[in-house]
Write a structure and sequence with these properties.
This protein has about 425 residues and is mainly alpha-helical. Helix content is about 80%, strand content about 0%.
Length: about 425
């Protein structure tokens, strides 16, 4: 029964252990975006700030291109060898990628080798995160008890947001301790070193995690996970995951990672103020996840998704229009926080909803691969597209694009059965 025979203490240790690893993984992933404003002038040729940010955003997108491959390979690996094995492999790749970025020389020293090393490191990290999402969502969903599955599964995004918060906290601390010149010269390397060292610690934690009962039961059976089996036997579920992810993941990257740059480039805030606004907003956002997850245990998953979809469609364009000239950091924080609270209807339960659609023998792949494809297409390109449209003088088209994709996902939410009631995790 998805881990119901596991002791409560054992379940909590496993959930906390898996969540801690998830936090470090996403810290390593997001620290790239948090420090782009500082390392872009070092790694790329001299030019306009927007051009350097575009280069960095393009490499950010390269990492996303590797996520479907990582999701496919490590999704199958996790389904065949265990959720714990997949989680351990993903953090190893992330560790190596972070340490490579920390050691990357500047363009003035190494020329084209500098961005090439950055690309290679992001490839490794893209493979890692591609596997991490599915393995983490599956592990937390299977380890949680049925009655509080939404609450416990929400800790995937608590720690995912925690990774962003940790990255921003390191940024704010370094901004306070170092001068702008020192940050651009060498200070931006510090967070990547921290990430690599934390990943080593998480490797040890993950090796000691309990395996889920759902995996053990599935491993005893004759059916094995594969990409062909996913689309042959569960095509509707796979396409549904892609469609319900599209609007949610685009909104997530628009409201979080891109928002920091938007507040600087368009809103007129300085980098320090923008970082503090986003840190304060993300703190509230992280705290709301368990509340939204617990609500889904009471009212169902579908109403939560629909709530996000309606608010996202109605509020995205007014949000960005108002932030263009808001002036006040407090008002900007309130507006961004409101958008993130609405987004919680999706993020708190998105991994769980996907996990509840698939049987245990193919669950990690079913969660990871369709999500990674949609995440690459819509999430990975969000920042680049927004910056490109700004450079072309059509910035507001991005606001409408985000709105349109949320509307597409909203149509899927209306047609989606409530997975709280149809969950296949209970079969495990």
């Amino acid at each position: 029964m998805g881990g119901d025979s596991v002791t409560r203490a054992g379940r909590m240790r496993s959930i906390l252990g898996g969540s801690a690893g998830n936090l470090v993984e996403w810290y390593d992933w997001y620290v790239y975006s948090a420090f782009t404003l500082y390392f872009a002038p070092v790694i790329f040729p001299k030019g306009s700030a927007t051009a350097q940010l575009l280069n960095a955003a393009a490499i950010f997108a390269v990492g996303f291109l590797m996520r479907p491959i990582g999701a496919w390979v490590m999704g199958v690996y996790s389904d065949r060898h265990g959720r714990k094995a997949g989680l351990t492999l993903s953090v190893t790749l992330m560790c190596v990628g972070s340490l490579i970025i920390a050691a990357t020389p500047g363009y003035a020293t190494a020329g084209a080798l500098a961005p090439a090393m950055l690309v290679f490191a992001r490839i490794l990290q893209g493979l890692s995160v591609g596997g991490e999402y599915g393995a983490s969502a599956t592990y937390l969903s299977e380890m949680a008890g049925r009655e509080r599955r939404g609450f416990y599964a929400s800790f995937q995004y608590v720690t995912l947001i925690g990774g962003q918060l940790t990255a921003l906290a390191v940024l704010i601390a370094l901004q306070a301790w170092l001068s702008e010149a020192a940050l651009e010269a060498w200070g931006w390397r510090v967070p990547f070193i921290i990430g690599g060292l934390l990943a080593v610690a998480v490797f040890r934690i993950r090796r000691g995690l309990l395996e889920t009962e759902s995996f053990r039961a599935a491993a005893a059976g004759p059916v094995r996970s594969s990409g062909a089996a996913l689309f042959r036997e569960y095509p509707r579920e796979a396409w549904t995951v892609m469609a319900l992810t599209a609007g949610g993941t685009l909104a997530f990257y628009a409201y979080t990672t891109y928002m920091q740059k938007f507040l600087v480039n368009t809103g007129g805030f300085d980098r320090v103020t923008a970082s503090r606004v986003m840190t304060a907003a993300l703190l509230v956002y992280a705290g709301v996840q368990p509340v939204a997850g617990a609500m889904s245990d009471r009212v169902g998953r579908r109403p939560m998704l629909i709530g996000f979809g309606v608010l996202g469609v109605l509020g995205t364009v007014p949000l960005f229009l108002a932030l263009e000239s808001v002036g006040s950091a407090v008002v900007a924080w309130a507006m961004v926080t409101a958008a993130l609270v609405a987004l919680s209807g999706y993020t708190a339960i998105s991994g769980l909803v996907k996990a509840e659609m698939f049987p245990a023998h193919i669950r990690t792949l079913g969660v990871a691969f369709p999500y990674a494809v949609a995440n690459t297409i819509f999430g990975g390109t969000a920042e680049y597209l927004a910056l490109w449209l700004k450079g072309a003088g059509m910035e507001r088209a991005f606001y409408w694009y985000v709105t349109a994709m949320i509307a597409v996902s909203l149509a899927v939410y209306f047609r989606l059965p409530d997975t709280r009631d149809t969950s296949r995790i209970a079969e495990g």
